[in-house]
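WARN no homologs supplied; continuing
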Amino acid sequence: MTTPLLILIAGPYRSGTDGDPARIAANLERLEEASAPIFRLGHVPMIGEWVALPILRNIDAADADGDVMYETAHRLLQHCDAVLRLPGASAGADMDVTIARERGLPVYFAVDEIPAA
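OK structure emitted
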């Protein structure tokens, strides 16, 4: 038994979509599918897009400092306790894993690797 963790779910969002909104939505749905099992284990799931998308809808491009998606994930990782890396090519998710490992956070590659809280 562990204390509840804030677990960032990292995987493809825009990668491999060629900007197709339906494919991007399908990628977000795959990320979100991991949230319920994490919650059932007693943890709090987090997806960077849940935070970044409202920012992107409301920020002036001139106010954006770099890539809002990557920057949001980077800031979130300062508060997360672990990362779940889902399959699929994604430079952003790979960066999340690198940052998590630099911080000494556990990185899981399947929900069944995550201990229950």
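The helical segments are 21-33, 35-40, 48-58, 68-76, 91-102.
OK
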